[in-house]
Sequence to fold (86 residues):
Amino acid sequence: MMKLVHDVDVAWRRLGKFLHLDTFRHAFEAEAGTAGPGTETEWVIVYRTAQGFCCIYRGAAVEFQDMLDVQIWSEEMEVQTYFIGL
Fold:
């Protein structure tokens, strides 16, 4: 019986590593704000325009020429982007 419990535990850990369950758990905790104080993520909706990309950040429109500009800006401002209409 003890060997069966050990084998199940080993199989569960291997499956968790294979499926990267720790990575998903950390992402869900950060999303829910349960990972600790100061981990609340601010989201910004980015959408495609005729000239590039645009988003509304804290009540002001921010325009970008290409996707690289959006990625650099989001890293500098420490926000998560959600793309619609691409």
